[in-house]
UniProtKB/TrEMBL annotation:
Keywords: Carbohydrate metabolism, Glycosidase, Hydrolase, Polysaccharide degradation, Signal. The lineage of its organism: Bacteria, Bacillati, Actinomycetota, Actinomycetes, Kitasatosporales. GO terms for molecular function: glucosylceramidase activity; polysaccharide binding. It comes from Actinacidiphila cocklensis. This is Glucuronoarabinoxylan endo-1,4-beta-xylanase. InterPro entries: CBD2, CBM2/CBM3_carb-bd_dom_sf, CBM2_carb-bd_dom_sf, FN3_dom, FN3_sf, GH, Glyco_hydro_30, Glyco_hydro_b. The keyword Transcription does not apply. It holds the Pfam family fn3. One of its GO terms (biological process) is sphingolipid metabolic process. Residues 534-644 form the CBM2 domain. It comes from the Bacteria.
Amino acid sequence: MTPRHGEATAPKPVSPSRRAVLAGLGVVPILAVALPSARATAAAAAAVVVDPSARRQTIRGFGGMNHPEWAGDLTAAQRDTAFGNSAGQLGFSILRIHVDEDRSNWSKEVATAQRAVAHGAIVFASPWNPPANMVETFTRGSQTNAQRLRYDMYGAYAQHLNDFTQFMKDNGVDLYAISIQNEPDYASTWTWWTASEIVTFLRNNAGSISTRVIAPESFQYIKSMSDPILNDSTALATMDILGAHLYGTAFSNFPYPLFQQKGQGKELWMTEVYYPNSTDSADLWPAALGVGEHMHHAMVDAEFQAYVWWYIRRSYGPMREDGQISKRGAIMAHFSKFVRPGYVRINAASNPQTNVYTSAYTGGSTVVIVAVNKATSAVSQQFTLANTSPSSVASYVTDAGRTLASLSGPSLANGTLTASLPAQSVTTFVVSVGSSSGNDTQAPSTPGTLTASQVTSTSVTLSWAASTDNTAVTGYDVVRLSGSTETAAASSTTNQATVTGLTAGTAYTFAVYARDAAGNRSSRSSTVGVTTSTGTSTGGCGVGYRVTSSWSGGFQGELVIQNTGTAALDGWTLTFSFTAGQTITQMWGGTAAQSGGAVTVTPADYTRSIPSGGSITVGFLADQGSTNPAPTGFTLNGGACTTA
């Protein structure tokens, strides 16, 4: 992104105000935090059960952007404040840098990147533009000087990204990943990409890039930019990290079911944001408390593995221009200092009482709980650690008068800690855990042979011979295997579990672990492979149709086909009619046949199956005349669909 909201900079292209863009989209970032009304402290809520055995996503880290060309480089002291993890430091473990189109500027990125790496951080890079000789201008709506990567330069551009990767490596910085394009759907003064262009580049060119590849970095986590990648197996194979920005994105749009379905083995990162705005001081309180709620939803609802701020040093950023940590930075540090790379988010009630948000993480013999209290009164909250035994707890708080201050307590008894969360605060609890059975370090025996039964189009029941333990087996964890990646599929207290939410006509591999009360985990069982059944249906469908962008004489559209029936669809045919001479010229996710205005769409291999309650997305390019009315009706497999 370029500097926002009239920030003073060196002479660089100035982007249109993000506020103007968001207002045009009907979404404006929050300017101030709406405070809840004062009320008496309620009785203590039910305890939040924190279960280290119920594991979610692995955390890659937290960090921010350094952009010497636009905002000046961090000083030596500021680099240590950002990436060190001692008192008065942020503990960032991720640095984002800029891939300049002019390689003579690349050396400006080296010093801060080297220091970040020395502190153990990973570094990734994002480009705003290709070199000038690779770019062409075109007309995009009312923008007559829009620019895009020339189609005959895709290979050269991949080499440009490789050259930057090698340059950083030669200077002691092994990039963890590199992005194809920063905000391809909010370009204006940089390079536009359509979803289909990104898919084409991924399919044909990204495989030659020598580090991990990030795409698409949509500025509002627009799913129509990333759905086509997830729905194209060849493109998906070359994308390692699905990156997203969250400018103005509603919390309700944070979850991404399609990624959870098809992104096994891939990482999910939030690669840029500022919140709630770039106009207020980062020390304004309680507005800064909104950062804590935003990070909570990013970790819990979206299940991001990384959370990356825009400029590290800025009046609205985690570090003030004087190099000191701001209130917004302190809120970030409640996560980044204690939830370290490789920690895993674990199950915990996310909203145990009004205005209270909690999330939990584990790494080694440590459990970290982050609690955000937006209420104007202190509240009492209990936390009970299941399947382990806490031995001690340290806590840290940031509120109106304190910043990352160490607290005494809270009390700890019988595996439960009881804490008072101060009014309008973020509190982090760092819990040391050990065996709940004294010196019990013996793991349960390996579960017996795994078998599958009752296989349907969306579920399977798994059984195995029970494990034994020197104390007692307390549960089993079923995992789904994809290569070397394990994904939690189900948990059970018996030697049987039913896995649901599967896709029809799809092959899966499962295994199971046993665990005991001390948290010891058995070796993994043998595996079992199953293929879910297929089904067809002509009833229960919905179709969403929208134009995602348009220009003189053409447009890009999207069809979201929903299976609202009770059985999975295995193969489908969609028909509809254009009424104003529109003609489809290209389609992904399906194949279009058109006769006059009548259009028939059949699926690609990867969109053939639609589970009950599921949906797939088909995108297309089309020519148009002076008007572009939407189709008025859709038919799927001969049955009429509802429209949205």
